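Fold sample X.
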Amino acid sequence: MEILMPIWEFFQNNILTKPQFFIGFIVFAGYALLRKPIYECLAGFIKAVVGYMILNVASGGLVGNFRPVLAGLKDRFDLSAAVIDPYFGQTAAQMSVENIGRSFSMMMMVLLIAFTMNILLVLFRRYTKIRTLFITGHIMVQQSSTALWLVLFCFPDLQDPGVVLMLGVLLGTYWAVASNLTVEPVAKLTEGGGFATGHQQMFAIYFTSKIAKKIGNPKKSLENLKLPGFLSIFNENVVATGILMFIFFGCIITILGPDLMHQIDKGFKDTQNFGFYILEKSLNFAVYLTILQLGVRMFVSELTNSFQGISDKILPGSVPAVDCAATYGFGHPNAVTFGFLFGAFGQFLAILGLVVFHSPILVISGFVPLFFDNATLAVFANRLGGIRAAAIIPFCCGILQVLGGGFAAYYFTTGNFGGWHGNIDWDTVWPVIGLIMQNFQYVGVAFVVIALLAIPQIIYQRHKDTYFLIAEDYDQYKEVLAKKQGVPVDQVVVD
């Protein structure tokens, strides 16, 4: 173990928690297993790393662009509350762990056991029915932090080795099962893109894929929306995003006022006009979205092409589970903005409700859940249920994020340190897991793990003939559907 720990520390600090290199080395290994020349392996590595770094720049820009607005709302209205955001949540979880005198460093071993658990579940996929390997490193760290506090909250007397083993099995099972739920929705959205989603809203994606078609009509989607006259400019993603965000940011920043924004945002120079400042902040949103889509195209292309080598030689039939932003390039460009706006409406309405009904804890929106959860769900909802579903589902998600996040921050006490994880799965699924663990102790943990492992078994029983095929060979999957529907392959309906 003493020999392995330094190796694991190096891997964790330099590769696992740096998803650009993690994915880059996976691409390199995949091409090597496909017996590609070394220069092609190196080229794939570079393109994958650069593509993911571009995505990181865009994601960071989106968060940084919105953060002064959140800070302004907090200062302007004298709000002191829990921020529902994975970065705030990670800090709050760490402070909670250290506040009770426990070491946060055990999270490193949790990551090792959880990742190993995911690999084992894929290796034995014949029995487990798991098809996905969760490889989004920074998300793994964020989730491990919050989950570590939940286990310590529910089992305060459990010694460190027991905490590490229990949480490693629980979290690894969650990563495997939850990402596995996204295989079908992502494959149908991307026409066999060769990847799944490994992020913070995996259960939500699955439920969206099931209810979107019942809420709306896919024929009345953003793709089919014909806007009359001057409104046709909204068909352009950059234009639509710029105008909508100018209205959204303009209203909020105008309420905050130029004096407060000068104090909060160092990028707002004294010589700059307030109106042009708002315009710049709004158009930056469109800039970062465009950059994000460029990065997604680069790394997803390399990853899906190369992962075939890993799937064939090491983890047969598996697909990588990656950042939710990888799906944005396969939906209507305006769906991302659409989901963000309606998710924001839902969150603001729920926050107003907390104020009106004198909630014991107040919630402040965090940009990561506000944008990435709701944008992702809107992409899937628009494809399956059109505009109506793309509006209703993110709106409801926004409400659940605030109410579920507020409850979790209050009940599990991380609100005392200013935050909660905030993403939709961690506002719904994980608070329930926490309650089960607290009330039923070890029996509850066993129940949760067994219940999670039962999910892929149930789905497999319903679609035995296509369950593995949709991940392994999408074209053959469509041929099977065509035979069932009695139509040519080019007329098959995939919903």
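Fold sample Y, listed below.
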Amino acid sequence: MTVLMMRVTGLSVVLAAAGVVFAGPQAAHASPGPADPTAPAVSAGEPAELGVVGRGSVRATPDVMRLSVGVEVRRDKAGAAFAAVKEGAARLTDALIAAGVARQDLRTNDLSLGTEYEKYPKVVGYRASQGVEALVRDLSKADAVIDAVAAAGDEVRLSGLSFEISRTHALLKEARAAAYRDARAKAEQYAALAGRQVGRVMKLEEEGDSAPPRFAMAEKASVSPGQGTITIIVRAIYELV
């Protein structure tokens, strides 16, 4: 069974602790644990296995900005509030498209109409809102898109933005290869210390998260995606010969 667990916090990745273990046939499926430096070396010719943890990391620059924006209005009548929010959302959509966002990269992610009370059941107005999520695939236009949102009207709201890597397949392959090399190198070192050689791979598991990594929201008007790290962790059990 292969389990993927990869997490990015801000611009950093949280890693699991590495472990190394020598095991005989009875412990073939035991989880790798920390090496005991006081444990006796494995005797030559005695069947044994070696468990190690390998890590592979790749630095990556995001290529997509996800922008959460919307329009919120308040009117005396429900119909007027709903019509006003639709009109404001249309202006916002036009502004985003004019700034370089493709129409297919825009989607409505929230639409609401609520009643406001002075003291229940006395109604004093109606509030309507519509949220829009925009994907900016050309980061050179990021500042222009945000400026366009700010200029779209006083009823427009910017609720957040995040950066993502849209194509992680090649990066994950590179990280996996690095993690496997790391595990193999550790296994060969420990095998040599025990006077043995590394044989076939008995078990190989991966930990990571298949979801696209997200990056921290920029705090300034001039946005910068920065860089993040994609990390793959593998747990391998090798035969010692």
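Sample Y note: Residues 1-19, 25-35, 214-221 have pLDDT under 50 and may be disordered.
Also: Helices lie at 78-98, 142-150, 169-193.
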